[in-house]
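quick one, 55 residues, struct below
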Amino acid sequence: NGGNQFTQYAGQNVGNLNGYNAVQNVRNQVAQNLRVQNVGNQNGQTGVQGNGNQN
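---
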């Protein structure tokens, strides 16, 4: 998959609301894929971003 590579933990943990640090590629911390981003992390899982947005 040459596009935005996300694991099954698709929801990004915005602001680390559950008190757990989200593993992110710091270079792409701003340019996140908002279509996949689960604001508020409603599923209770920590967002794990792989290679980040390749753009």
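The chain has a mean pLDDT of 54.
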